[in-house]
Amino acid sequence: MIGVSAAHALVRDGHDVVIYDRAGVAAGASGGNAGAFAFSDIIPLASPGMLRQAPRWLLDPLGPLAIRPAYALHALPWFLRFARASLPGPFAAARDAQAALMRLSATSLDHLLDAICGERLLRREGQLQIYDSAAELRAAKPGWDARAEAGIDFRILTSPDAIREIQPGLNPCIQTAVFTPDWINVTDPKAWVEHLAEDFTRRGGRIERKSVRALQPDGEGMAVATEDGRTPFERVLLATGAEANALLRPLGATVPLDTERGYNTTLPAGAFDLRTHLTFASHGFVVTRIGDGVRVGGAVEFAGLTAPPNMKRADAMLGKARRFLPDLDSAGGTQWMGFRPSMPDSLPVIGAAPGHPSLLLAFGHGHLGLTQSAGTADLIADLVAGRPPSIDMAPYRAGRFRKTAV
Ligand SMILES: Cc1cc2nc3c(=O)[nH]c(=O)nc-3n(C[C@H](O)[C@H](O)[C@H](O)COP(=O)(O)OP(=O)(O)OC[C@H]3O[C@@H](n4cnc5c(N)ncnc54)[C@H](O)[C@@H]3O)c2cc1C
User: Fold this and answer.
1) Atom of ligand 1 nearest to the CA of 363
2) DSSP 88-154
3) I need a surface site. Which of 315, 320, 342, 372 has the fewest CB within 10 A?
Protein backbone atom coordinates (compact mmCIF):
# COMPACT_ATOMS: atom_id res chain seq x y z
CA MET A 1 0.00 0.00 0.00
CA ILE A 2 2.69 2.46 1.07
CA GLY A 3 5.11 1.59 -1.74
CA VAL A 4 2.45 1.57 -4.47
CA SER A 5 0.92 4.85 -3.21
CA ALA A 6 4.31 6.59 -3.14
CA ALA A 7 5.26 5.19 -6.54
CA HIS A 8 1.94 6.48 -7.90
CA ALA A 9 2.58 9.98 -6.50
CA LEU A 10 6.10 9.96 -7.99
CA VAL A 11 4.97 8.88 -11.44
CA ARG A 12 2.29 11.61 -11.32
CA ASP A 13 5.15 14.02 -10.61
CA GLY A 14 6.85 12.92 -13.83
CA HIS A 15 9.53 10.59 -12.45
CA ASP A 16 10.65 7.32 -14.00
CA VAL A 17 9.65 4.76 -11.34
CA VAL A 18 10.00 1.01 -10.94
CA ILE A 19 8.53 -1.04 -8.06
CA TYR A 20 10.31 -4.23 -6.95
CA ASP A 21 8.13 -6.54 -4.88
CA ARG A 22 8.98 -10.17 -4.35
CA ALA A 23 5.33 -11.24 -4.21
CA GLY A 24 3.44 -8.78 -6.43
CA VAL A 25 1.27 -5.93 -5.18
CA ALA A 26 -1.07 -6.23 -2.16
CA ALA A 27 0.69 -9.36 -0.97
CA GLY A 28 1.60 -8.10 2.54
CA ALA A 29 -0.49 -6.59 5.31
CA SER A 30 -2.11 -4.26 2.78
CA GLY A 31 -4.09 -6.97 1.00
CA GLY A 32 -6.08 -8.40 3.90
CA ASN A 33 -6.67 -5.58 6.37
CA ALA A 34 -9.95 -4.08 7.55
CA GLY A 35 -10.06 -1.53 4.73
CA ALA A 36 -10.70 1.61 6.79
CA PHE A 37 -9.57 5.16 6.15
CA ALA A 38 -9.69 5.80 9.88
CA PHE A 39 -8.99 9.54 9.79
CA SER A 40 -10.58 10.04 13.22
CA ASP A 41 -8.08 7.65 14.89
CA ILE A 42 -5.68 10.40 15.93
CA ILE A 43 -5.02 8.95 19.40
CA PRO A 44 -1.72 7.04 19.33
CA LEU A 45 -1.83 3.50 20.72
CA ALA A 46 1.14 4.48 22.88
CA SER A 47 -1.01 6.36 25.38
CA PRO A 48 -1.66 6.57 29.12
CA GLY A 49 -4.98 4.74 28.53
CA MET A 50 -3.27 1.82 26.79
CA LEU A 51 -0.77 1.46 29.63
CA ARG A 52 -3.74 1.08 32.00
CA GLN A 53 -5.63 -1.35 29.74
CA ALA A 54 -2.78 -3.59 28.49
CA PRO A 55 -2.17 -5.62 31.71
CA ARG A 56 -5.86 -6.68 31.80
CA TRP A 57 -5.78 -7.67 28.10
CA LEU A 58 -2.62 -9.73 28.60
CA LEU A 59 -4.43 -11.95 31.13
CA ASP A 60 -6.54 -13.49 28.34
CA PRO A 61 -4.29 -15.67 26.13
CA LEU A 62 -6.63 -15.21 23.14
CA GLY A 63 -7.56 -11.61 24.02
CA PRO A 64 -6.89 -8.37 22.16
CA LEU A 65 -3.16 -8.28 23.09
CA ALA A 66 -0.74 -11.19 23.42
CA ILE A 67 3.00 -11.65 23.61
CA ARG A 68 4.36 -15.10 22.84
CA PRO A 69 6.62 -16.06 25.77
CA ALA A 70 9.49 -17.02 23.46
CA TYR A 71 9.38 -13.51 21.93
CA ALA A 72 8.94 -11.45 25.11
CA LEU A 73 12.62 -10.79 25.80
CA HIS A 74 13.24 -9.82 22.18
CA ALA A 75 10.36 -7.33 22.29
CA LEU A 76 11.34 -5.82 25.65
CA PRO A 77 13.29 -2.79 24.27
CA TRP A 78 10.31 -1.99 21.99
CA PHE A 79 7.93 -2.10 24.98
CA LEU A 80 10.17 0.13 27.06
CA ARG A 81 10.12 2.70 24.26
CA PHE A 82 6.34 2.25 23.97
CA ALA A 83 6.00 2.95 27.70
CA ARG A 84 8.15 6.07 27.39
CA ALA A 85 6.12 7.27 24.37
CA SER A 86 2.95 6.83 26.47
CA LEU A 87 3.96 9.43 29.05
CA PRO A 88 1.84 12.60 28.89
CA GLY A 89 4.40 14.83 27.10
CA PRO A 90 5.51 12.45 24.30
CA PHE A 91 1.93 11.20 23.97
CA ALA A 92 0.57 14.72 23.36
CA ALA A 93 3.31 15.42 20.79
CA ALA A 94 2.61 12.13 18.96
CA ARG A 95 -1.15 12.85 18.98
CA ASP A 96 -0.53 16.22 17.30
CA ALA A 97 1.77 14.61 14.74
CA GLN A 98 -0.82 11.87 14.11
CA ALA A 99 -3.56 14.49 13.65
CA ALA A 100 -1.39 16.45 11.18
CA LEU A 101 -0.70 13.35 9.09
CA MET A 102 -4.39 12.41 9.20
CA ARG A 103 -5.48 15.85 7.95
CA LEU A 104 -2.92 15.70 5.15
CA SER A 105 -3.89 12.14 4.27
CA ALA A 106 -7.60 13.02 4.02
CA THR A 107 -6.81 15.91 1.65
CA SER A 108 -4.35 13.78 -0.32
CA LEU A 109 -6.95 11.02 -0.65
CA ASP A 110 -9.43 13.52 -2.13
CA HIS A 111 -6.89 14.49 -4.81
CA LEU A 112 -5.96 10.86 -5.44
CA LEU A 113 -9.61 9.86 -5.90
CA ASP A 114 -9.94 12.35 -8.73
CA ALA A 115 -6.70 11.14 -10.33
CA ILE A 116 -7.64 7.44 -10.27
CA CYS A 117 -11.46 7.63 -10.57
CA GLY A 118 -11.45 5.81 -7.22
CA GLU A 119 -14.78 6.82 -5.69
CA ARG A 120 -16.49 3.60 -6.81
CA LEU A 121 -13.98 1.65 -4.67
CA LEU A 122 -15.12 3.40 -1.48
CA ARG A 123 -17.95 3.11 1.01
CA ARG A 124 -18.87 6.21 2.96
CA GLU A 125 -20.92 4.60 5.71
CA GLY A 126 -19.23 5.98 8.86
CA GLN A 127 -18.10 4.04 11.89
CA LEU A 128 -19.89 2.98 15.06
CA GLN A 129 -17.49 2.66 17.99
CA ILE A 130 -19.19 0.49 20.57
CA TYR A 131 -18.61 0.65 24.31
CA ASP A 132 -19.54 -2.03 26.85
CA SER A 133 -20.78 0.52 29.38
CA ALA A 134 -21.27 4.21 30.09
CA ALA A 135 -18.23 3.99 32.41
CA GLU A 136 -16.09 2.78 29.52
CA LEU A 137 -17.24 5.69 27.37
CA ARG A 138 -16.46 8.08 30.25
CA ALA A 139 -12.93 6.65 30.41
CA ALA A 140 -12.54 7.29 26.67
CA LYS A 141 -13.79 10.89 26.97
CA PRO A 142 -10.34 12.59 26.86
CA GLY A 143 -9.78 10.95 23.48
CA TRP A 144 -13.10 12.20 22.14
CA ASP A 145 -12.38 15.69 23.55
CA ALA A 146 -9.07 15.67 21.64
CA ARG A 147 -10.93 14.63 18.48
CA ALA A 148 -13.45 17.45 18.98
CA GLU A 149 -10.55 19.88 19.30
CA ALA A 150 -9.10 18.48 16.06
CA GLY A 151 -12.42 19.25 14.32
CA ILE A 152 -13.51 15.60 13.96
CA ASP A 153 -17.26 15.17 13.71
CA PHE A 154 -18.92 12.55 15.96
CA ARG A 155 -22.19 11.82 17.76
CA ILE A 156 -22.39 10.19 21.18
CA LEU A 157 -25.30 7.72 21.28
CA THR A 158 -26.65 6.59 24.63
CA SER A 159 -29.92 4.96 23.65
CA PRO A 160 -30.22 1.45 22.17
CA ASP A 161 -32.76 2.76 19.64
CA ALA A 162 -30.41 5.46 18.35
CA ILE A 163 -27.62 2.88 17.98
CA ARG A 164 -29.85 0.32 16.25
CA GLU A 165 -31.14 2.97 13.87
CA ILE A 166 -27.59 3.07 12.46
CA GLN A 167 -26.93 -0.67 12.80
CA PRO A 168 -29.89 -3.01 13.27
CA GLY A 169 -29.25 -6.48 14.67
CA LEU A 170 -26.89 -5.53 17.50
CA ASN A 171 -27.24 -7.25 20.85
CA PRO A 172 -29.75 -5.17 22.88
CA CYS A 173 -27.23 -5.02 25.77
CA ILE A 174 -25.26 -2.50 23.69
CA GLN A 175 -26.37 0.89 24.98
CA THR A 176 -23.39 3.20 24.42
CA ALA A 177 -21.63 4.07 21.18
CA VAL A 178 -20.07 6.92 19.24
CA PHE A 179 -20.77 7.41 15.54
CA THR A 180 -18.13 9.06 13.31
CA PRO A 181 -19.93 9.89 10.05
CA ASP A 182 -16.83 10.89 8.02
CA TRP A 183 -15.11 7.51 8.36
CA ILE A 184 -14.51 5.90 4.96
CA ASN A 185 -13.89 2.28 3.96
CA VAL A 186 -12.60 0.76 0.76
CA THR A 187 -14.79 -1.94 -0.72
CA ASP A 188 -11.73 -4.25 -0.56
CA PRO A 189 -8.16 -3.23 0.36
CA LYS A 190 -6.65 -5.71 -2.12
CA ALA A 191 -8.77 -4.31 -4.95
CA TRP A 192 -7.79 -0.78 -3.89
CA VAL A 193 -4.03 -1.47 -4.09
CA GLU A 194 -4.46 -3.36 -7.37
CA HIS A 195 -6.42 -0.47 -8.86
CA LEU A 196 -3.71 1.97 -7.82
CA ALA A 197 -1.03 -0.32 -9.25
CA GLU A 198 -2.89 -0.60 -12.57
CA ASP A 199 -3.17 3.17 -12.80
CA PHE A 200 0.54 3.44 -11.95
CA THR A 201 1.51 1.15 -14.85
CA ARG A 202 -0.95 2.94 -17.18
CA ARG A 203 0.98 6.16 -16.43
CA GLY A 204 4.30 4.52 -17.39
CA GLY A 205 5.45 3.03 -14.06
CA ARG A 206 6.84 -0.52 -14.03
CA ILE A 207 6.29 -3.33 -11.52
CA GLU A 208 8.81 -6.15 -11.37
CA ARG A 209 8.54 -9.25 -9.23
CA LYS A 210 11.95 -9.29 -7.57
CA SER A 211 13.24 -10.01 -4.12
CA VAL A 212 15.58 -7.29 -2.88
CA ARG A 213 18.62 -8.84 -1.21
CA ALA A 214 20.60 -5.69 -0.36
CA LEU A 215 20.74 -1.93 -0.76
CA GLN A 216 24.22 -0.64 -1.54
CA PRO A 217 25.44 2.99 -1.56
CA ASP A 218 26.46 3.81 -5.13
CA GLY A 219 28.10 7.21 -5.56
CA GLU A 220 25.38 9.82 -4.95
CA GLY A 221 22.69 7.16 -5.41
CA MET A 222 21.78 3.72 -4.17
CA ALA A 223 22.04 0.35 -5.91
CA VAL A 224 19.50 -2.43 -5.41
CA ALA A 225 20.74 -6.02 -5.45
CA THR A 226 18.24 -8.71 -6.47
CA GLU A 227 18.44 -12.28 -7.71
CA ASP A 228 19.01 -10.78 -11.20
CA GLY A 229 21.96 -8.59 -10.26
CA ARG A 230 22.60 -5.03 -9.16
CA THR A 231 20.80 -1.96 -10.52
CA PRO A 232 21.86 1.61 -9.67
CA PHE A 233 19.17 4.22 -8.94
CA GLU A 234 19.26 7.95 -8.25
CA ARG A 235 16.85 7.45 -5.33
CA VAL A 236 15.43 4.38 -3.63
CA LEU A 237 12.34 4.29 -1.43
CA LEU A 238 12.26 1.43 1.07
CA ALA A 239 8.62 0.54 1.80
CA THR A 240 8.86 -3.11 2.82
CA GLY A 241 6.55 -2.74 5.82
CA ALA A 242 7.40 -4.89 8.85
CA GLU A 243 10.50 -6.26 7.16
CA ALA A 244 12.35 -2.97 6.65
CA ASN A 245 15.13 -3.68 9.14
CA ALA A 246 16.41 -6.68 7.16
CA LEU A 247 17.62 -4.27 4.46
CA LEU A 248 18.57 -1.42 6.82
CA ARG A 249 20.75 -3.50 9.14
CA PRO A 250 23.79 -3.79 6.79
CA LEU A 251 23.63 0.00 6.28
CA GLY A 252 23.76 0.63 10.04
CA ALA A 253 20.39 2.36 9.82
CA THR A 254 18.02 0.10 11.78
CA VAL A 255 15.02 1.56 13.60
CA PRO A 256 13.00 0.11 16.52
CA LEU A 257 10.44 -1.52 14.24
CA ASP A 258 8.46 -4.57 15.35
CA THR A 259 5.39 -6.29 14.05
CA GLU A 260 1.96 -6.33 15.65
CA ARG A 261 0.48 -9.39 14.02
CA GLY A 262 -3.26 -9.15 13.37
CA TYR A 263 -5.87 -11.77 12.47
CA ASN A 264 -9.23 -11.88 10.78
CA THR A 265 -11.92 -14.05 9.21
CA THR A 266 -13.73 -13.04 6.04
CA LEU A 267 -17.25 -14.43 5.87
CA PRO A 268 -19.14 -14.94 2.62
CA ALA A 269 -21.99 -12.79 1.27
CA GLY A 270 -25.11 -12.89 3.43
CA ALA A 271 -23.25 -13.35 6.73
CA PHE A 272 -24.76 -10.21 8.23
CA ASP A 273 -26.57 -7.09 7.05
CA LEU A 274 -23.78 -4.67 7.97
CA ARG A 275 -24.61 -0.98 7.49
CA THR A 276 -21.46 0.68 8.91
CA HIS A 277 -17.95 -0.17 10.15
CA LEU A 278 -18.22 -1.52 13.73
CA THR A 279 -15.35 -1.06 16.19
CA PHE A 280 -15.32 -2.91 19.51
CA ALA A 281 -12.38 -0.97 20.92
CA SER A 282 -12.19 -2.58 24.34
CA HIS A 283 -12.23 -6.04 22.72
CA GLY A 284 -9.68 -5.08 20.05
CA PHE A 285 -11.61 -6.07 16.94
CA VAL A 286 -13.72 -4.60 14.13
CA VAL A 287 -16.47 -5.88 11.85
CA THR A 288 -16.42 -4.47 8.36
CA ARG A 289 -17.90 -5.08 4.93
CA ILE A 290 -15.36 -6.42 2.38
CA GLY A 291 -16.64 -7.03 -1.12
CA ASP A 292 -20.01 -8.75 -0.61
CA GLY A 293 -18.84 -10.38 2.61
CA VAL A 294 -18.05 -9.42 6.18
CA ARG A 295 -14.58 -9.31 7.77
CA VAL A 296 -14.21 -9.82 11.54
CA GLY A 297 -10.78 -9.21 13.00
CA GLY A 298 -8.07 -7.19 14.66
CA ALA A 299 -6.10 -8.10 17.82
CA VAL A 300 -2.40 -7.65 18.37
CA GLU A 301 0.11 -10.43 18.81
CA PHE A 302 3.84 -9.93 19.36
CA ALA A 303 5.61 -13.01 18.01
CA GLY A 304 7.96 -11.71 15.33
CA LEU A 305 8.02 -12.36 11.62
CA THR A 306 8.69 -16.09 11.48
CA ALA A 307 6.53 -17.86 14.09
CA PRO A 308 3.51 -19.69 12.58
CA PRO A 309 0.10 -18.02 12.92
CA ASN A 310 -2.24 -18.98 15.74
CA MET A 311 -5.63 -18.96 14.03
CA LYS A 312 -7.36 -19.56 17.36
CA ARG A 313 -7.09 -15.78 17.65
CA ALA A 314 -9.29 -15.36 14.57
CA ASP A 315 -11.75 -17.93 16.02
CA ALA A 316 -11.85 -16.07 19.35
CA MET A 317 -12.81 -12.77 17.67
CA LEU A 318 -15.47 -14.48 15.58
CA GLY A 319 -16.90 -15.99 18.77
CA LYS A 320 -17.08 -12.55 20.38
CA ALA A 321 -18.63 -11.05 17.26
CA ARG A 322 -21.41 -13.66 17.44
CA ARG A 323 -22.22 -12.46 20.96
CA PHE A 324 -22.54 -8.85 19.86
CA LEU A 325 -24.29 -9.67 16.54
CA PRO A 326 -26.63 -12.58 17.35
CA ASP A 327 -27.71 -12.95 13.70
CA LEU A 328 -24.15 -13.27 12.35
CA ASP A 329 -23.75 -16.42 10.26
CA SER A 330 -20.16 -17.36 11.03
CA ALA A 331 -19.91 -20.35 8.66
CA GLY A 332 -17.64 -20.62 5.63
CA GLY A 333 -15.03 -18.00 6.57
CA THR A 334 -11.45 -17.61 5.34
CA GLN A 335 -8.80 -16.85 7.95
CA TRP A 336 -5.82 -14.52 7.51
CA MET A 337 -2.90 -13.11 9.46
CA GLY A 338 -0.98 -9.94 8.57
CA PHE A 339 2.13 -8.20 9.88
CA ARG A 340 1.46 -4.61 10.95
CA PRO A 341 4.73 -2.65 10.78
CA SER A 342 4.82 -0.82 14.11
CA MET A 343 7.01 1.78 15.76
CA PRO A 344 6.90 2.21 19.56
CA ASP A 345 5.48 5.76 19.40
CA SER A 346 2.69 4.75 16.95
CA LEU A 347 4.07 7.11 14.27
CA PRO A 348 5.48 5.95 10.92
CA VAL A 349 8.99 6.54 9.60
CA ILE A 350 8.92 8.93 6.64
CA GLY A 351 12.10 10.58 5.37
CA ALA A 352 15.74 9.87 4.52
CA ALA A 353 17.67 7.00 6.10
CA PRO A 354 20.23 8.25 8.63
CA GLY A 355 23.52 8.73 6.77
CA HIS A 356 22.03 7.80 3.36
CA PRO A 357 20.31 10.79 1.73
CA SER A 358 19.51 8.88 -1.48
CA LEU A 359 17.57 6.23 0.48
CA LEU A 360 14.09 7.31 1.53
CA LEU A 361 12.03 5.35 4.04
CA ALA A 362 8.26 4.95 4.38
CA PHE A 363 7.08 2.23 6.72
CA GLY A 364 5.97 1.67 10.30
CA HIS A 365 2.36 2.83 9.87
CA GLY A 366 1.11 0.23 12.35
CA HIS A 367 -2.69 0.08 12.38
CA LEU A 368 -3.02 2.97 9.93
CA GLY A 369 -1.13 2.12 6.73
CA LEU A 370 -4.11 2.40 4.41
CA THR A 371 -5.39 5.49 6.23
CA GLN A 372 -2.10 7.37 5.95
CA SER A 373 -1.02 6.05 2.55
CA ALA A 374 -2.02 9.01 0.39
CA GLY A 375 -0.50 11.58 2.78
CA THR A 376 2.72 9.56 3.08
CA ALA A 377 2.90 9.32 -0.71
CA ASP A 378 2.59 13.11 -1.10
CA LEU A 379 5.30 13.69 1.52
CA ILE A 380 7.67 11.32 -0.30
CA ALA A 381 6.92 13.09 -3.60
CA ASP A 382 7.70 16.45 -1.92
CA LEU A 383 11.03 15.13 -0.58
CA VAL A 384 12.05 13.74 -3.97
CA ALA A 385 11.07 16.97 -5.75
CA GLY A 386 12.85 19.13 -3.14
CA ARG A 387 9.55 20.89 -2.28
CA PRO A 388 8.97 21.91 1.33
CA PRO A 389 6.64 19.25 2.76
CA SER A 390 3.24 20.55 3.83
CA ILE A 391 3.64 19.33 7.43
CA ASP A 392 6.55 19.27 9.90
CA MET A 393 8.46 16.05 9.15
CA ALA A 394 10.47 15.96 12.40
CA PRO A 395 8.09 13.58 14.28
CA TYR A 396 8.48 10.92 11.55
CA ARG A 397 12.26 11.00 11.08
CA ALA A 398 14.01 7.63 11.22
CA GLY A 399 16.61 8.71 13.77
CA ARG A 400 14.17 9.94 16.41
CA PHE A 401 14.98 7.07 18.79
CA ARG A 402 18.75 7.49 18.51
CA LYS A 403 20.64 9.16 21.34
CA THR A 404 21.87 11.78 18.88
CA ALA A 405 18.68 12.24 16.87
CA VAL A 406 19.21 12.46 13.11
C1 LIG B 1 -5.80 -7.28 10.91
C2 LIG B 1 -5.33 -5.95 10.37
C3 LIG B 1 -6.26 -4.95 10.11
C4 LIG B 1 -5.85 -3.69 9.66
N5 LIG B 1 -6.80 -2.76 9.34
C6 LIG B 1 -6.40 -1.55 8.86
C7 LIG B 1 -7.37 -0.58 8.48
O8 LIG B 1 -8.58 -0.81 8.54
N9 LIG B 1 -6.92 0.64 8.06
C10 LIG B 1 -5.59 0.94 7.98
O11 LIG B 1 -5.25 2.06 7.64
N12 LIG B 1 -4.65 0.00 8.28
C13 LIG B 1 -5.03 -1.21 8.71
N14 LIG B 1 -4.10 -2.16 9.03
C15 LIG B 1 -2.67 -1.80 8.92
C16 LIG B 1 -2.21 -1.85 7.47
O17 LIG B 1 -2.61 -3.07 6.90
C18 LIG B 1 -0.68 -1.69 7.42
O19 LIG B 1 -0.28 -0.55 8.13
C20 LIG B 1 -0.25 -1.53 5.97
O21 LIG B 1 -0.76 -2.58 5.18
C22 LIG B 1 1.27 -1.49 5.84
O23 LIG B 1 1.54 -1.32 4.48
P24 LIG B 1 2.98 -1.44 3.91
O25 LIG B 1 2.90 -1.15 2.46
O26 LIG B 1 3.92 -0.64 4.75
O27 LIG B 1 3.41 -2.97 4.18
P28 LIG B 1 2.95 -4.38 3.43
O29 LIG B 1 1.57 -4.26 2.99
O30 LIG B 1 3.30 -5.44 4.36
O31 LIG B 1 3.86 -4.35 2.16
C32 LIG B 1 5.23 -4.62 2.21
C33 LIG B 1 5.63 -5.19 0.87
O34 LIG B 1 7.03 -5.33 0.85
C35 LIG B 1 7.35 -6.52 0.12
N36 LIG B 1 8.70 -6.92 0.54
C37 LIG B 1 9.15 -7.11 1.81
N38 LIG B 1 10.46 -7.41 1.78
C39 LIG B 1 10.85 -7.41 0.46
C40 LIG B 1 12.08 -7.65 -0.20
N41 LIG B 1 13.20 -7.95 0.46
N42 LIG B 1 12.09 -7.56 -1.56
C43 LIG B 1 10.97 -7.26 -2.25
N44 LIG B 1 9.77 -7.02 -1.68
C45 LIG B 1 9.72 -7.10 -0.34
C46 LIG B 1 6.25 -7.50 0.51
O47 LIG B 1 6.12 -8.51 -0.47
C48 LIG B 1 5.04 -6.58 0.60
O49 LIG B 1 4.31 -6.54 -0.62
C50 LIG B 1 -4.47 -3.43 9.46
C51 LIG B 1 -3.54 -4.44 9.68
C52 LIG B 1 -3.95 -5.70 10.12
C53 LIG B 1 -2.92 -6.78 10.32
Assistant:
1) 26
2) HHHHHHHHHHHHHHHHHHHHHHHHHHHHHT-GGGEE---EEEEESSHHHHHHTHHHHHHHHHTT---
3) 315
